[in-house]
Here is the input.
Amino acid sequence: MRKYVIMGVQGSGKGTQSQLLAADLDLVHISVGDIFRWNVQNHTKMGAMVRRIMAAGELVGDDLVESVVRERLTQHDWNFGFIIDGFPRNRPQAEFFLESYDINGVIVLDLPDSEVRRRVLNRRVCPGCGINYNLIDSSPKVPGQCDSCGGELVTREDDTEGALAVRLRDYHEKTNPVIELFRRKEYVFMVDARPAPEVIQEQIRNCLGLPPCKHGAEVA
Ligand code: AMP
Here is the structure.
């Protein structure tokens, strides 16, 4: 059973790296941001509660986040383990998590703020299948259209200059102390998030003492 946390500022590739690891090791990928986005898209009560907070780049309240994580993990569909992405993001969330679960490793994707801005402001997403594109180095074959399902690509509501500034501030103020907390428990592996996705994946595997990717890192 493998239980990992992946952390990193927006645009550092947490989703892509989690999916690669999860697909190869049969882990369940749990993205708190994806759970909230699903609720917003499907107009649920929770979606209505978080929509404006997310669009502004702010953090959703700890009680709601913790209940979402608790509920997701109590489904126990993670026979081989899980990789949780985007959580914990502050000290209370980290303390809640450490009280309830043993973890095997925390991967921190390290990216300078200037590169974060370049990536996030050029990010486009397919609402249908969730694939992320970047107009600089991974643009779709047909502009504005998903290579996989043909869906119309959109900009995430929180990928704006204003929301990004809030998210970067929160990351440095609230999430960096979480990394320090985990570091004291010797769980943390810092990985440079600037190289190509497949190179980052190999670095993650080296750090975690895992074998190379079985199917090769196929990145959309
Ligand atoms: P992400 O996809 O991880 O960038 O998350 C998108 C948005 O969901 C964040 O900007 C927050 O508004 C919310 N969110 C996701 N995870 C958390 C968390 N652990 N704590 C608070 N808010 C979160």
User: Anything to note?
Assistant: The pocket of adenosine monophosphate is lined by residues 10, 32-33, 36, 53-54, 57-60, 65, 86-89, 93, 158, 167 (CB under 6 Å). The mean pLDDT is 91.
